[in-house]
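Two folds, back to back.
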Amino acid sequence: MVTGARGWARLGPLPGLRAWAAAALPAARRHIAAGTEAWRCGGTWLAGVDALPNGAGGGIAGAALPQALLSCLPWQPATWHRAQLSTLRPGYPQPWDGESDMAFRFRQVRDAAHVDGLLPVGPDRRRMLREAHAFILGLPLTEADPGAAPLVVWEGSQDIIRRAFTAALAPHPPETWGDIDLTEPYHAARRQSFATCPRVLLPARPGEALLLHRMILHGMAPWAEGAAAAPEGRIIAYFRPEFDRVADWLEAA
């Protein structure tokens, strides 16, 4: 897999990818201006789930996802979902209504580190595999300083996470995995990752791509004092296509 033992790769600049980012940015600006979603973290983060109106092939406004990028991906979805638009502003993070002091502290100190696809379920917010992503692909749309709340990963943590989830899920049929409580093994694997894996900041510019292993522990760093970005903030479009077979979440490379 192109991410290798590190669990991540910065690709590019890639031919055609800056043109894709330039074509996507006006749609991102329109989404932000529409105000259809509430800003989180004291007005410093807009999550923008399924916000980018890209087509089923991933292209937007006449700009296709370039072959130079597609050839690097470990798996090709038949249909691309609408990308998330993650927009950060100076001051991130700030306290968020409804967020506990412990959760806010975790966002400040541990970058709200998480593994995608494990959703909080029920009143006790137990972590369950509800989205079997194949990979995480981040495509920056705006220029931003390296300290402008960059993506953060714990390098190599995907191996720790995989071992923990294999032990928890392998005894069960894949069709039941979405109902298995993974909270304890997830938290234990996360603690081990914090203790043993290097924390790596991954700033990137339009024309580049950030490719992450689906199980890598990752988050967003606080916005550094003095860091600058485009007027809209630091915007990254994220694709997280899901496997056709949930079993591939453990079995695939």
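---
second:
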Amino acid sequence: MANKYKTKVKKVETIGVLSSGGDAPGMNAAIRAVVRTALANGLKVKGINRGYSGLLEEDIMDMNAKSVADIIQRGGTMLYTARCPEFMTKEGQDKGAYICKKHGIDGLVVIGGDGSFQGAKKLAERGINTIALPGTIDLDIACTEYTIGFDTAVNTAMQAIDKVRDTSTSHERCSIIEVMGRHAGYIALWCGIANGAEDILLPEFYDNNEQQLIDNIIEKKKIGKKHHIIINAEGVGDSYGMAKRIEAATGVETRATIVGHIQRGGSPTAKDRVYASAMGAKAVELLCEGKSNRVVAYKNGKFVDFDIEEALKMEKLPDEFLVNMAKKLSR
């Protein structure tokens, strides 16, 4: 698909960078890479605090190499993040583009998820060369096999689940452990496999057959299983209610644990630091080439880019092979 937002004549001189939506470990690595790659290419850089909300409030600062020193190991985002309903309106988008031009920002890197991509697309339509980076722990951006923060989040959840398993075994309990993933079950699937869970509930596939869970617990108890681990994605939810019903039906003490927002924080893994850095550098390269309305992705072992409109139309589901494998390994 031809990139109708490609700028052919105007050279980018000042790049802005912001993070939007939910935070994710590795965002700081991406910001650092954007700033230092831009400086290495002779460009000016401006940091925009609190995403599109900060853009509309002109919370904008000049950045240099020192601005991003000692942040690659830190979780969260040094530029902060916020939701911005105003930016979903035409008036907010017009104002955002005007403010970018007012501050001399002719290239913008947006780090976030689908909603952030929509905002980037609207700015591209208004003449701001815009590149998006997939920053979300949910791994739910269809055009890419990697999203910034997923690796750290799934490792954080895995370690927490290992600890719950220890106490679950000691008390011969069933434990329902809820991990993040409102619309996507990637964290649940990966943790279910990595933690050796007996059952994994994914929003993409769960059929609400609670009786099957009950039957599985009873069957495992008969063959001497001392615990039963159910990994439940946030999008399925109702972990506390499910625990009460399962305990009543099986006679097995059942507890629910919600891992929660610890999955968003913490020092990023090596993968999140390296891949996020590569994506940040790639974004600057694309802007230097005069490209706009693109999203950086990792596909088939390479860092590539897609048209944002094309990317937003893509769909994906968790790998069917992994889903079926998890069921076989849980026997």
